[in-house]
TrEMBL record:
This is Molybdopterin molybdenumtransferase. The keyword Metal-binding applies. It is an enzyme of class 2 (transferase). GO terms for molecular function: metal ion binding; molybdopterin molybdotransferase activity; nucleotidyltransferase activity. The keyword Zinc does not apply. Keywords: Magnesium, Metal-binding, Molybdenum, Molybdenum cofactor biosynthesis, Transferase. Pathway: Cofactor biosynthesis; molybdopterin biosynthesis. GO terms for biological process: Mo-molybdopterin cofactor biosynthetic process. Belongs to the MoeA family. Its EC number is 2.10.1.1. It catalyses: adenylyl-molybdopterin + molybdate = Mo-molybdopterin + AMP + H(+).
Length: 595
């Protein structure tokens, strides 16, 4: 069995220094010289189509449904660590050989063909390593899986060299075209970059995420508020628990029975903190104790109250147990859950109630958090009414309540929400006043004479990220960015006026913009199985289809009434299926966005 590891976790620093704001990481740039202008990572995946299992190692990105993704630990710890992570994922599938490809190879198909042909001619080798102009290219290699597993299990693999890991293997070198593009100028010369015209759905999301990464604000110290995103790891300021205590109501005892009771249980606290009583025990002694109370010095175990009794027949009070407890029984030791300095929550975590509970319990009162992303929204349309039953030629407002709620749920705050008439001057004036990080305008993004929103946004933009998107619904969506002079661009999303199409635009493009600009990871599409055959479509577009998920079988079923102007299917859905132009067969893997 052949498997493949696609390494996609590099920082591409030289490329990022010269690339425009809208340029995503190098593996996500598009190859203008290939049919369909795929991203470089997609070209590497396609080149490995002979592999039964493919895993991409790197940060979250949208991937074909049949491709898995894992992350090297720690992130950005180098290609050797990435290969090791890929090998760990593939172990359970027992492959015999594994392709190792960089996600940004310019001509991966030719390299893969050459490697597979070399392995057929020279089957005795353990590694068939690509070579270009006399230099080994280990990220264009074919490896014996057992040999690779042994080579990449070394603890030095983090930050280590792939060439050093492969050195002990019996190697056959294969001449391949491993040309690379390290700068934006090199990439442009090879027709690699951001092609003009309608963007693919995945590329539009990549471009939005790239722009949003430049929008992240400076961290601020704050109380750990629900909804904020951590800018730094939070560590425990003290051991948790921070003292030895009892896990049960009963008696703290020292040594084996019998135990002389030094004090009687208190009947009530009367406002006093009886948990701090503590005390000291010598062998053969006992003290009453409550759950969470400070453990007396010398205590060796807790006898639960329901498993013992107090015997006063001899004139002294003794604790008599059904059986002596094991040493340490029902004692909570300081630091048994967490040690001082141990990481409680990682940077990029969006705080929810469960996180707040942990931070409060651990006495964390201040955190470093990213500022909350702001969103301004303009809703256009002379035909839209906000109350009552609409007359023919009128429609009810479907956005003014849902958009703010969705934006808040995604982690941002709504700055302005205004309903505007279909007047180019009104919209232009509103855009001049819009100061939020992200600006959303609904309606007017088509190409007719009435679609003035497209013109107004384009006039103010410095970068057009997507003049439209090859998706349905949502094809007229316009995404652009404006330089604000502080290094943090302002993002514009022109959403279609049809209700479902507009909501699809928010889930597809505003959602990743908010996540990344907030300091969180890119919310890549998830994977399930198609519960039924999904027909192909004639246009080269991705379909976003409201569907419901059967959680027990991990299958998705398409809902009806899901045309761009309809909302009843969307209201019943818990996912948007992401289906390519070829459709999907029943039980085939398919991507989706959770709702």
């Amino acid at each position: 069995m052949l498997a493949a590891i696609i390494v996609a976790g590099g920082r591409s620093q030289r490329m990022s220094e010269t690339a425009p704001t809208s340029a995503p990481p190098k593996p996500l740039l598009q190859h203008g010289g290939l049919p369909g202008q795929p991203r470089l990572v997609d070209a590497s995946i396609a080149a490995a189509d002979a592999a039964e299992r493919i895993v991409v190692v790197g940060p979250p990105i949208d991937l074909p449904a049949h491709v898995a993704r894992v992350r090297e630990d720690p992130p950005f710890s180098g290609p050797a660590a990435a290969i090791a992570a890929g090998i760990r994922y593939l172990e359970s599938f027992s492959p015999t050989r594994v392709l190792v490809l960089a996600a940004d190879l310019i001509a991966p198909a030719g390299a893969v063909n050459a490697l597979l042909a070399a392995a057929r001619r020279h089957p005795g080798a353990q590694a068939w390593v690509g070579s270009h102009d006399g230099v080994d290219q280990p990220l264009a290699s074919l490896l014996d899986f057992a040999a690779a597993r042994e080579a990449f299990t070394d603890a030095d693999v983090t930050g280590g060299s792939v060439r050093r890991a492969l050195a002990p293997l019996e190697t056959y070198r294969v001449e391949v075209d491993a040309a690379d593009a390290d700068t934006w100028e090199d990439a442009s010369a090879r027709r690699i970059g951001l092609p003009d015209g309608p963007a693919t759905w995945v590329s539009a999301r990549d471009r939005v995420a790239a722009a949003a990464a430049s929008m992240i604000g400076e961290p601020v110290a704050s109380a750990p508020l629900i909804g904020t995103v951590l800018a730094e790891d939070v560590v425990a300021p003290t051991d948790v628990p921070h003292y030895d205590s009892s896990a049960m109501d009963g008696f703290a005892i020292a040594g084996p029975s019998p135990w002389r009771l030094l004090a009687h249980p208190q009947a009530g606290a009367q406002g006093r903190n009886v948990h701090r009583a503590g005390g000291e025990l010598r062998p053969g002694e006992a003290l009453p104790i409550l759950t969470g109370s400070l453990l007396p010095r010398g205590a060796t175990a807790i006898v639960r109250s329901e498993r013992c009794r107090v015997d006063s027949s001899s004139g002294s009070h003794c604790v008599v147990a059904d059986a002596d407890p094991a040493p340490g029984a029902d004692i909570r030791r300081a630091g048994e859950e967490l040690r001082r300095g141990e990481v409680l929550l990682r940077a990029g975590t969006r705080l929810g109630p469960r996180h707040a509970a942990l931070l409060d319990a651990c006495a964390v009162d201040r955190i470093s958090a990213y500022p909350r992303v702001s969103v301004d929204v303009a809703l256009t349309g002379n035909e839209v009414i906000t109350a009552g039953v609409p007359a023919p030629g009128e429609v009810r407002d479907a956005f003014s309540r849902s958009f703010p709620a969705l934006i808040e749920a995604l982690g941002a705050k709504v700055g302005r929400l205004d309903r505007l008439a279909d007047d180019p001057l009104d919209l232009s004036a509103w855009l001049e006043r819009a100061t939020a990080d992200i600006v959303v305008v609904t309606g007017g993004t088509g190409h007719s004479g009435q679609d003035f929103a497209r013109r107004a946004i384009t006039e103010r933009a410095d970068h057009i990220l997507a003049e439209s998107v090859r998706c349905a619904p949502g094809h007229p969506t316009l995404v652009a960015a404006r330089d604000r002079g502080d290094g943090r661009p302002q993002l514009f999303v022109g959403a279609p006026g049809n209700p479902l199409a507009a909501h699809v635009a928010l889930h597809s493009f505003v959602s990743p913009a908010i996540a990344v600009a907030s300091g969180r990871e890119f919310p890549a599409a998830e994977t399930c199985r198609a519960g039924e055959d999904i027909e192909p479509m004639t246009k080269r577009r991705v379909r976003l289809i409201p569907a419901w998920l059967n959680r027990s079988t991990d299958e998705a079923f398409v809902l009806t009434k899901t045309r761009s102007h309809m909302l009843s299917g969307y209201a019943a859905a818990d996912a948007l299926l992401v289906v390519g132009e070829g459709g999907a067969a029943r039980h085939a893997p398919v991507c989706y966005l959770p709702l």
